[in-house]
Amino acid sequence: MKYNFDKITERRNSGSYKWDTPERDNLLPMWVADMDFPTAPAVIDALRKRVEHGVFGYTHVPEEYYRSVIDWFHNRHSWESDRSWFIYTSGVVPAISAIIKALTEPGDKVIIQTPVYNCFFSSIRNNGCIPAHNPLIYTGDRYEIDFDGLEAAASDPKAKIMLLCNPHNPGGRVWTSGELTRIAEICLRNNVYIVSDEIHCELTYTDSGYTPYGTLPEPFRSNASVCISPSKAFNIAGLQIANIITPAPAVRRRIDRAININEVCDVNPFGIAATIAAYSYGSNWLGQLVEYLHGNYTEICDFIAKEMPSLKVMPLESTYLAWIDIRDTGMTSEAFTDMLLRHTGLMVNPGTMYGPHGEGFIRLNFACPRSMVIDAMHRLKTAIDMHFNA
């Protein structure tokens, strides 16, 4: 079956955080990381069937749920996991926060590789911990890991956890098996526990694909928890469901306790039904989605190279988030995004949202019909022309 990703779905006045915040005319929001496509038909059918049942009480998570997740990652990514390793929760961010609570004390340090997903900062801060920056090295066309800096950060006795973003948001890197192994060696040697956020793992464009941290051998695998969810790949973030996969029983018990302390131990029936359907029947839809998203990314790269050579798009290995270098404009990220919104209604994220090492960049979400991507590019060019060529 051929799916139509060109179709426009009106999201205004639907309670969409992305589209209804702020309320203004001529807004084109390309900031919040959800997609403007309906989810896979198999997921919609499963949700419709669940709605028709009509009773939405407290929910038991069935064995079919675990089997669908385990089989998906086994078949697509050769990741052998066990049912007993799973803790379900309402989202990857609550999962990360609960793990930090479980494994740290206030005042401990948590290593992050900036620029990085902004909720990492709040999860650290909300648990009374301190972010320890291990900034990525920007080579001019991609990010690399500063392993010497990571060794230094991990050797601090106050460093207890490293938050790993795999694939990386907003940098778009898919960390290789070799890179993951070096991270694992450094952290294990220094008694730093790894929490790997792998929420973007299905949105990968490279031939080599993504390597789940959980496929690393022992003892690395047991020194980590991996957080996964179908929410990004299948556009079901509002259904609020995720999994923490933790092989080490003693660590898993501590995390489970923190999940209960944080009161994020229950999930809703729609998240369960959607996950089972997505992982059981959504593969073909997802394949076409990724192909379409890559076409959107190519459209952005081609347009910017031709019409706005002062900007530079980071080569993208994963996610639907273009990371755009604006440093040659001489503007700060905040000033540039304010200019875009004020003059054209195009709403993107300033790079500083992802830490100070994001200065000089913007993040643009291109998970939408191609006509909207083209509209965004013309708005971007209008703003550039108004500001620099007037």
From TrEMBL:
One Pfam short name: Aminotran_1_2
CDD domains, sorted: AAT_like
Protein name stated in the entry: cysteine-S-conjugate beta-lyase
Similarity comment text for this entry: Belongs to the class-II pyridoxal-phosphate-dependent aminotransferase family. MalY/PatB cystathionine beta-lyase subfamily.
Domain Aminotransferase class I/classII large: 34-377
Organism lineage string: Bacteria, Pseudomonadati, Bacteroidota, Bacteroidia, Bacteroidales
Record keywords: Lyase, Pyridoxal phosphate
InterPro entries the record matches: Aminotransferase_I/II_large, C-S_lyase_PatB-like, Class-II_PLP-Dep_Aminotrans, PyrdxlP-dep_Trfase, PyrdxlP-dep_Trfase_major, PyrdxlP-dep_Trfase_small
Cofactor: pyridoxal 5'-phosphate
PANTHER family: PROTEIN MALY
EC number: 4.4.1.13
Organism: Muribaculum intestinale
GO molecular function, one term: cysteine-S-conjugate beta-lyase activity
Annotated Gene3D superfamilies: Aspartate Aminotransferase, domain 1, Type I PLP-dependent aspartate aminotransferase-like (Major domain)
